[in-house]
Design a protein that fits this description.
The protein is built from 11 helices and 4 strands; from the N terminus they run H-H-H-H-E-E-H-H-H-H-H-E-E-H-H. By secondary structure, the protein is α+β, with helices and mostly antiparallel strands. The longest helix has 67 residues, at 146-212.
Length: 492
């Protein structure tokens, strides 16, 4: 009875003295600059566009129905997205598992016994029967905050998995868009190359006629043949690139190669982005990018696990109790009812663990230091990626302007060279050179337009733009599952 009274007195004392050991999470300073070095590029990209809200399904800014279809299929069917969704479910369950650590545990049992005793001469026998049912209860007391820190770590892991899912959705949409734009760019270059081959074939026909008429040397004809075949040699590599792009798009949308042969067979020009570009500043980008959010949540979890490791140095307390109800008696004699109850406290303290607890604490602290370093480095890498993309876009715009002028000038030059050659005023070498310059200029301009379009797609991923998931229809990516209410305070 005195032991029971001692346990009842100890219980409120344990609750009142409960504390949470280990450090609380504090968000590191981002120290982000006020603007990107190439911030003006974002403003330049929106010049002349209506001031409209930036669509979360940003790829629609290319106004290409086929691209919209491919991205939608990719977000619905890509298995990287499916795997990330499964990780979110797992992380959700881990919160429930972590919170179950300090919940009440109840076990039930039933014992039914029948015994018969005989005298030595077996002349008399006694039959005794009993039925006993019991409930045992165990309530862990989270005195050092071991379970609360575990729940904090699980919650951070859940948020990290959500951020990882958003990052994969953004990455998949960007990859599909880039691959599609590359395919259209290669189709354009292939059309230009075939056009150049056709032009050189006509030139070769003229040269061959003049050679057969004795008006041109064989050297001119051989040069014309060389030019045609050199151009024609570039066709197979572009056809291979187109096949690879179709296969890559099939894989990105959860299909097997060959499924888009008909859909993408018709050649189209390179789509031009018409939508609005988000003019984010570094702080907005660094606060929104999924990979940075994931890295910060990983840091939160690592800090919480320091508390879990530190709590191992403290004793564990379990409030235990048992209630039993039963009946027993001898056959033929009135049955006697039985009621048993007990309540106590179990205290468990590890005296020594051979340095294992200290090692676990050192590991947790080192992991937190690593997570912090990774987080800070990622901030710099993300900012650099945006700067590099903006610089690439700015350079591409300048190159397109120069290449456009060059193509226009070389077109005039090629026409004049052909006219002068027919009049016998210049050699065939001048004609070949002029046509080569024109063909190369057109190819370079098409390649640069493709590069510009793909850089726009890269920019949206670098900025961490939130997007819609066709599966959910909700802004911000796939439908996000809120963490279960574990009954603990969130990480401060």
């Amino acid at each position: 009875m005195r032991r029971r009274g001692f346990a009842l007195l100890l219980t409120p004392l344990l609750f009142s003295s409960a504390c949470v050991v280990g450090p609380d999470y504090e968000k590191p300073e981002m120290e982000a600059p006020g603007a990107f070095v190439s911030q003006k590029v974002l403003t330049q990209l929106n010049a002349g566009k209506e001031s409209t809200t930036i669509a979360t399904d940003w790829w629609r800014g290319f106004t290409d129905d086929t691209l919209d279809q491919l991205v939608r299929k990719g977000l619905e069917n890509n298995f990287r997205v499916a795997a990330a969704e499964a990780r979110v479910k797992e992380a959700h369950a881990r919160i429930v598992l972590a919170d179950a650590g300090d919940n009440l545990k109840v076990n039930a049992g039933l014992d039914n016994a029948l015994e018969e005793e005989f005298s030595l001469d077996r002349a008399r026998s006694t039959t005794t029967g009993s039925v006993f049912s019991a409930l045992s209860l165990r309530l862990p007391l989270d005195v050092a905050g071991r379970f609360e820190r575990g729940v904090q770590a699980a919650r951070a892991g859940f948020e990290a998995s959500q951020a990882d899912l958003r990052g994969i959705v953004l990455s998949i949409s960007s990859q599909i868009t880039r691959e599609y734009l590359q395919l259209r760019g290669n189709q354009r270059q292939l059309d230009l190359l075939r056009e150049s081959v056709g032009l050189q074939d006509k030139t070769l026909s003229i040269v061959r006629s003049r050679y057969e008429a004795g008006l041109s040397p064989e050297l001119d004809m051989r040069r014309a043949e060389t030019t045609v075949e050199n151009l024609r040699a570039g066709i197979p590599s572009l056809e291979q690139a187109l096949l690879n792009s179709r296969n890559r798009l099939a894989s990105l949308t959860g299909q097997y190669p060959g499924v888009y042969e008909e859909l993408l067979k018709t050649h189209r020009d390179i789509p031009v982005y018409q939508g609005k570009i988000p003019e984010f500043v570094p702080m907005e980008v660094l606060s929104m990018r999924p990979d940075i959010r994931q890295s910060e949540e990983t840091l939160k979890a690592a800090v919480a696990r320091i508390g879990v490791a530190e709590a191992d140095f403290y004793p564990t307390f379990d409030l235990i109790g048992q209630i039993g109800i039963g009946a027993a008696g001898v056959v033929g004699v009135p049955t006697m009812d039985i009621l048993l109850a007990s309540l106590g406290t179990l205290i468990n303290q590890i005296v020594t663990a051979g340095g294992a607890r200290q090692a676990n604490l050192d590991i947790a602290r080192a992991q937190a230091e690593e997570a912090l370093a990774n987080y800070k480095q990622l901030l710099r890498d993300a900012s650099e990626e945006v700067e590099s993309t903006l610089a690439a876009i700015q350079a591409s715009l300048a190159r397109q302007q120069s290449l456009g002028k060059a193509v226009e000038a070389s077109g005039v030059s090629s026409y004049q060279a052909e006219t002068l050659y027919r009049q016998g005023l210049i050699s065939f070498l001048n004609v070949v050179d002029a046509q080569r310059v024109l063909a190369n200029g057109k190819q370079q301009l098409a390649a640069e337009r493709t590069n510009y379009a793909t850089q726009i797609a890269t920019l949206f991923r670098a900025l961490g733009t939130r997007i819609d998931s066709p599966a959910s229809g909700e802004p911000g990516g796939p439908a996000e599952t809120p963490p279960p209410d574990a009954g603990h305070s969130p990480i401060s």
